[in-house]
User: Which sequence fits this backbone?
């Protein structure tokens, strides 16, 4: 039987497929974790891409390639998450506003100092009740 592709071409395509699946999986997981709310389609698809890359490596290339791919997926995923968290890109997406306003807890006509004294008296009374029981 005549094959269209040579064995070397098939091995090259399998290797390329593993690399593309790893890249797509990591990108989708990063999108899911940092840009898209909840755990949805992108996260599940990213996980499936990473699992597929490991599966293709084990079943089509060999056990050694599967082990290497598994370790590479774990290390690259961890490094990608760490690098994205430490990068300035995450700071640009987050809210970084300081609120300097103050709210008065005192009722109209009362001063904060009086409230502090009342709170201290209430604390002492509560401690006395606890000591009695």
Assistant:
């Amino acid at each position: 039987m005549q094959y269209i592709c040579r064995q070397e071409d098939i091995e090259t395509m399998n290797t390329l497929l593993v690399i593309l699946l790893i890249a797509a999986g990591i990108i989708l997981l990063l999108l899911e974790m940092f840009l898209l709310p909840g755990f949805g389609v992108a996260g599940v698809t990213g996980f499936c891409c990473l699992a597929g890359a490991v599966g293709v490596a084990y079943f089509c290339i060999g056990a050694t390639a599967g082990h290497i791919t598994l370790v590479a997926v774990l290390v690259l995923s961890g490094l990608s998450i760490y690098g994205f968290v430490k990068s300035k890109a995450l700071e640009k997406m987050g809210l970084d506003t300081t609120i300097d306003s103050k709210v008065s807890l005192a009722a109209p006509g009362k001063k904060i100092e009086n409230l502090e004294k009342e709170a201290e008296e209430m604390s002492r009374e509560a401690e006395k009740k606890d000591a009695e029981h």
In short: The mean pLDDT is 81. The radius of gyration is 30 Å. Residues 104-133 form one domain. DSSP finds five helices and no strands in the chain.
